[in-house]
Amino acid sequence: xxxxxxxxQYMARDSIIHAxxxxxxxxxxxxxxxALFTIDTFSGFGFFSIFILIVIFLSKISFLKVIKGLKPILxxxxxxxxxxxxxxxxxxxxxxxxxxxxxxxxxxxxxFMVSRIFILILFTSLLTLTTxxxxxxxxxxxxxxxxxxxxxxxxxxxxxMTIALRFIPTLLEEAEKIMKAQQARGADFESGNLIQRAKxxxxxxxxxxxxxxxxxxxxxxxxxxxxxxxxxxxxxxHELEYRYYDxxxxxxxxxxxxxxxxx
Amino acid sequence: MxxxxxxxxxxxxxxxxxxxxxxxxxxxDNGEFIGIVGHTGSGKSTLVQLFNGLIIPSSGAVxxxxxxxTDEKTNLKETRRHVGLVFQYPEHQxxxxxxxxxxxxxxxxxxxxxxxxxxRVNEVMGLVNLDxxxxxxxxxxxxxxxxxxxxxxxxxxxLKPDVLVLDEPSAGLDPQGRKRLADLLRYLYHELExxxxxxxxxxxxxxxxxxxxxxxxxxxxxxxxxxxxxxxxEQKLHQLALDLPQITEIMHRLKDRGLxxxxxxxxxxxxxxxxxNRLRGCEKC
Amino acid sequence: MSLIxxxxxDFLYENENSDRPALQNINLQIEAGDFAVIIGSNGSGKSTLAKLLNVxxxxxxxxxxxxxxxxxxxxNTWKIRQxxxxxxxxxxxxxxxxxxxxxxxxxxxxxxxPSPEIRKRVDKALEMVGMAGFQKFAPHKLxxxxxxxxxxxxxxxMEPDxxxxDEPTAMLDPQGRKEVMETIEYLNKEKEITIVHITHFMEEAVTADKVIVxxxxxxxxxxxxxxxxxxxxxxxxxxxxxxxxxEVAEYLRSKNVNIPDILTIDELVNSLC
Lengths: 263, 285, 273
Description:
Order of helices and strands of chain B: EEEHEEHEHHHHEHEHEEHHHH
Shape of chain B: globular
Largest sheet of chain B: 6 strands, mixed
Strand order of the largest sheet of chain A: 1-2
Oligomer: heterotrimer
Number of strands of chain B: 10
Helix content of chain A: 55-70%
CATH class of the largest domain in chain B: Alpha Beta
Number of helices of chain B: 12
């Protein structure tokens, strides 16, 4: 069923990693990504991998679950590997057949790039695995707040994300209902070539859009009647608060990032 | 037998794994008018979606016209032309530019000729009381809510199904809209001899229209019989927190107080007359 | 002065082609503590009236005063919106957040209430509508009646003087309708919150202090529930649902059975036997 799709991949656990402030987690992830790009040796990646293993252990999420989350990008990883192995030239020729050859430089860069992508994805998925979409939204809003004076509508952006999170399940449910109703009238969403299939989506998408617009209209009225007038002067039920361990985590990560850049 | 449901259990395959239907056995004959009642979540909507293969049950078999539709090889498109399904708030599925095109969507999917489609659209618009010439070129989105619903129902009728299933077709309609709908259903049943299955929270509607009432509770069929039989089970229904038709409730209460009225009259006029006659029969009860 | 004062109000939708105003010369007072029910069929102008009370619209002619504040003056808009809480028809389209407590907090957050105070209000409001313990639930996992009660809690948390409910039961099943009606009655009787309930279900008017019948932009009748249900034939003419008991009573009355004004099945049975 369409409604089975969960938004993000958040897994609720009672762990220190989950308890970290969303803002700190976003900042940490950013620092680590930058640090990752300063690394140019495999020992640096090894160091990072050990760090990630410790974080996964602390987060109480099973290692297998984390790896499973990488499945969708498996193709990307393999593709990168092959492109580098076959197309990057230099160093010793390891193997050749007619015009195809594999050279040592290619193998090295291939594995190097793959390790980097791998670790990059692990970091970001750890962020989404341990932080609920709501906390993420709040975190992003807070981080963007200083940019408000340059005209970045931080609270409005965060409100948009909140509403999107709220309505995705509702619209998925609706899509499923409309799909069934059209199927009951003999519509076929499953067979035919690409163009036929795209065409067959019209009876699904038109009602879905109309409904989404109607909902948006209703919601705008409801929000206005509940005194919504943009981010100005709004307070929050859940104020984000830094705790001591947030700073400890930040300090550890900064030390790590600096160390790693010497590798 | 038109529809046979044989030992069907259905469990929704999502995070909650709700058992929507438990070992359901049911036979529906040609020419029946079945009313299905029960609380939200009792399994009514799941049950009717079995009839045209929109839901394939976890276990058990469903046969339509003798054909097992739970079998993977069955052509569901073929089944769906025999069982028409009008969902709740069907006007939300309208999508075409004109009323004509929207109603023609079903027949087109059946691969009918242009002339046949035109005849059908003309015919079903007449059935739902929308003037063909006046409405065929109008956008369905500029019609009133009640008219939109009639267009949507016409869109399913245009498939010329043997069975028409309607899920809460009167939700949100005003008294006039409801009366019009009841007239349509009566016409389809009596004049066109269609088999009808009606899901409704309005007991009055079920009692007045249907020939057989099925009461569902927690995925099971708990009562099954004529309206007279089912609505005579006052205590059972109250125990399930279901309402009696209001007029039946009145008649039962009067009878309890000693006024000897018949309790199986479902039309307001007849019941009122009955009360009047009994009142005249004895000055003080 | 009454809590709500509507003086000679007309309202005309600008973009519509018809010349007939949605509302014509409406005069109505609603007192603090009232349970007022407005009934009318589709297009009677009842929803337009609701939107006027919350300044989602302002009158084309005439004035509306809420607690002495003129709704046509723009400096009063936000004050009035805090005083008049609105609950709408579609339970799905008025909940903003993907967690119940965040949704209830939405109004107070907009008012700039400090965080600890919001927490208190949210929990109290959820308790008042019988939804305590549902703080962390996602709205799409709730039943229609529950969603509507969360919407009511969201309004209560703003501590309004009056709650206007625009057909809150129209899209609910009988169970949900009962839940919502019980909640509304509790809030009015026990918590003394003024209620303006707009509906096309006449039986929901039975317990009201004041019933207003609207038709084609006019107020057709004002009075107690009993006085209204006496008008069975007239109400039928304007396409309204009549409670079955009132209809039976009317029939018997027409056959010269002496029967008092009837609203409910209980009253009918008691008067007959």
